[in-house]
Amino acid sequence: MSGHWDVGLYPARVTSSDDLVESDFIDRIYEASVVPELWPGVLDDIAATTESRGGLLFSARKALHWTASDTVREVFSDYVSEGWFTRCSRRVCIMNAEEPGFFTEQDFWSEEQMGTDPIYRDFFRPRGLGWSAGTGLRIPSGDNIVFSVERAFERGPVEPDHVERLNALRPHLARSALISARLGLQRAEGATEALTALRLPALLLDEAGRVVEANERLQAISGDMGIGARDRLTLTDRAAAEQLVQALSSLGTPEGQAPCSFPLKDDLGVPLGVLHVMPVRRTAHDIFGRAYALIVLTPIGTDRSPSADLMRSLFDLTASEARVATGLALGRTPEEIAAEGAVAITTVRSQLRRVLEKTGCTRQAEVAALLAGVSLGGH
């Protein structure tokens, strides 16, 4: 049964003092999405939490854009200008990884292989670097994004607990970097310019749940996502509307709260794309005024089976949850997924429950259809 579901008021969550410190850092990550000159400081702080020398962000679609901590900026200026970026083996491995997450050198090569790899032997190690943790994001909109932290060679490889910390931040980094990539790592002069430059359906909401501004791209899907009475955002997908309210109520809180990237389906259950919800904080208000949140839709096609790009777009799935979702999309049963991953069936079922919650699905078959971009009908 179809309908239009209003996205109304969303109460703020109460957080502890420790949560507020974490929330402030997450706010800074989103602030950098539209104020790109802040990325070096954010990357510096991320690197510090992993005992690394610095961090960097690359985005490529029709052109290459990048930024980095001041501590490694000169190194990566050479990396780009001398052509190392185009022939870097680790970038290829990271971008081709099927599971969303940060990876280290140990995930791809032995120490002997690294010692003979030109990128390490001739570029990184002579500059005192050589260990990293990086992640790749292949967005359906055509943007390819790479994040990494770079560690001094003498310090040794990035440890699993640091990789776990990076993976906890990854959903926030991914959403923020999507905006930065669409803007070409340039600061927009105002809300209208920013929303237009995104070239994706996007809008701004205030704290009362009203649409402050929307771009023309939204009109193309106005039947499924539009502006109703009292300037309220309306969705035909009830599950997405409920997830959106939950996401809006948890903005600015530490990771682990409501997912802020989730699918939007039409009234027949056909997936249209992935909605991304981002807070407007700090100096981002200079661009977006009184807005509380930025909502962006990355559309997907319906001719991919299964959609690896959509898999990478559901940023709030952990690596283990993504393995379960991918297995379902490939037609495997939970028992087969457990056997392939050498884990208990109870573990897979627990991960499956979280996948259902995060994707807004109620059945395993819906998850498989969502990732394959195929309508189930009848629900």
Using brief descriptors, characterize the structure shown.
379 residues, alpha+beta, 5-stranded antiparallel sheet, 15 helices, 13 strands, 42% helix
Textual characterization of the structure:
The chain is α+β, with helices and mostly antiparallel strands and 379 residues long. It has 15 helices and 13 strands. A hairpin with a 5-residue loop joins β7 (202-205) and β8 (211-214). The chain starts with a strand and ends in a 7-residue tail after the last helix. Helices cover 42% and strands 18% of the residues. α12 (319-329) crosses α14 (345-359) and α12 packs across α15 (364-372).
Spatial separation of the terminal alpha carbons = 8 Å
Count of helix runs: 15
What integer value in Å does the Rg equal?
21 Å
**What helical percentage do the residues reach?**
40-55%
Whole-number mean pLDDT: 85
